[in-house]
Amino acid sequence: MMLRIIDMVLAAVGLLVTLPLLLVLLVVGAIDTGSPLFMQIRVGRYQRGFTLIKFRTMKVDTQSVASHLANLADVTPVGVFLRRTKLDELPQLWNVLKGDMSLVGPRPCLFNQTELIKERAVRGVFEVRPGITGLAQTQGIDMSTPIRLAETDARMLETLNLKSYFKYISQTLTGSGRGDRIRIK
User: Which of 12, 62, 108, 109 could anchor a disulfide with 58, C-beta 3.0 to 4.6 Å?
Assistant: First the structure.
């Protein structure tokens, strides 16, 4: 419960503080792709679907696949910048504020990632809200290795406390969050 309150406070503060940047990125994204926000149904807590919101980094009408399967040619020049700086993730603060996500937790997968869903279900990973970042992201583990990712997610949840919660956030903000991304130049 305490982490949920911290999530809501940090997400609200994050949205307020970054509001000017969010507005600039909306305009830049509209110029870049004509559709600055990307919304996708992801697997959430208790395996219920929710709409994840991000800044669009790929061309409109790009096939909906996990990041490790995405084609680098579909990423726009602005998208490369957004992914490198992780600014594409900022709209997910709204998902945190709404209660769909936490700042720290297992990254939400797509419903077509059946092997990962199975491995996470066995390990009880879906008992918590998915997160923007977590242990797997700070260790560079992406969704291309479903068993390893599910094991890492479960290990993180077993040991998650206030100290590790802030540690994962800090590591991500300082550049350690490398999991779950298209390998860009």
Answer: 62
* Strand intervals (E) in 23-167: 37-43, 49-55, 102-104, 131-133
Q: What whole-number distance in Å separates Cα of residue 116 and Cα of residue 5? A: 29
- CA 85 from centroid of its chain's CA atoms: 13
Q: Are strands 37-43 and 49-55 parallel, antiparallel or unpaired?
A: antiparallel
The Cβ of residue 97 has, within 10 Å, a number of other Cβ atoms equal to: 17
What is the SS3 string spanning 48-76? Answer: CEEEEEEECCECCCCCCCCHHHCCHHHEC
Residue 145 has φ and ψ, to the nearest 5°, of: -125, 80
Report the distance separating Cα 160 and Cα 6, nearest Å: 14
What pTM value is reported for the model?
Answer: 0.88
| Residues in contact with 111: Cβ distance below 8 Å, sequence separation at least 6, in sequence order | 41, 42, 43, 49, 117
Q: Is 64 left (phi over 0), alpha (psi -120 to 50) or beta?
A: beta
